[in-house]
Amino acid sequence: MVRDVKFRKFVSALTILAIATGIGAFTSLRLVSVGTKVAASNLVESVLAGEILVYGDGLCDLSELVVKDIERIPGVERVVPVVMTFGYGEGSLVIILGVRAEDLDVALSSLTSGRLYTPADSRVVIVEGGFAKERGLGPGSTMLLKPQLSASAYIYEVVGVGDIGLKVQEFGALSSYVIVPLDEVQEMLGREGYVTMAIIKVSDESLVSYVEACILQAYPDARVFRREEVMKMVTRILSVLDGLLLAVTLVGLAVAIFSTSNTVMTNVREHARDIAILKAIGARERDVVSIFLIESLFFGAIGGALGIVIGVVGADAIRGVVSSLGFLEVPLVVEPRLLVACYLTAIAVSTLSAIYPCLKASRIRPIEVLKNE
Fold first, then answer.
1. Which residues have a Cβ under 8 Å from the Cβ of 287 and sit 6 or more positions away?
2. Are 136 and 90 in contact (CB under 8 A)?
3. β-strands 176-181, 92-99: how paired?
4. H helix intervals, the chain
5. Using one digit for the tens of pLDDT, what is the confidence trace for 207-240?
6. Domain ranges within the chain, ordered by starting residue
7. pTM for the structure as a whole
8. Rounded CA Rg of the chain
9. Strand 194-195 and strand 62-63: pairing?
């Protein structure tokens, strides 16, 4: 008898664990999906600091005269010319951003130490915090910078250390960022008067299409990108990945459904005599159904609560792995509505699992069962 009770407890624990595992996987992947969308949105907004981005044909082929023409288009609030090139700093691969002093607010998210450079400064650089710590750099230090396309190296004074906002995470995983005055990068590359891209801020969102049309009318061969279009494309890609993740979680939920259904069905078979006696003394079918339904709901309630805890912990672990790769800085976004939906999913899973066993229990005939005793 004691062994039988222990075995039933063990089976019940396994059933709860199956539900918790399925709901945990479902919760963690849902949370990671939400965090990835937030990270992608932040990435697009940081790389495309304006509503429109205009590129030249090559690395540094967009004339600054074009930039001045764009500034005259009605509705254009600001145009930020930028040069982006690969180079070497202190023996490591770095991405060199050429930015005007007045546009540093676009390129920098924050300045942790030192100062910003001014139009009067020369041979000055602002370095990324992680790179500065790794190389022991700080305000007042000097570093050697050499663009890949230049035969010469240049000595620069570090005037500031900060968090670079204008960067592509995919490149950031391979190298660090440094910011130097725009005209000095142009001089290094031998491309005075040319930039890699122009970031355009529009005074009103409704004017984005008009500004884009004006640019393409004046420069039909220009490579023009809208932040809205890039975000839509990123969202579509994430939706496909989201569908794949959802398919994976459904496998875990299917296992939870099978495990719960099997446990409840086993209990129905073991208690067939008890059910027959209850029905013989007047118990209705719904009374019998409610007994096993409550049992399955108990499994769902305990398994769902445990699964949500597992899911949040798992989501944080997955988020940490993705962020450590450097491709996306995925935040842990715990939405109460999502957690409630996951818990209700656990209840739904346990309820669906009990439907067939409950029907079998309600159809037990006392005469047939007791006759075989």
1. 278
2. no
3. parallel
4. 2-47, 64-71, 104-107, 129-135, 169-172, 182-189, 208-218, 227-270, 272-280, 285-324, 336-362, 366-371
5. 888 888 888 888 887 788 877 766 776 677 677 7
6. 2-43+232-371, 57-221
7. 0.58
8. 31
9. antiparallel
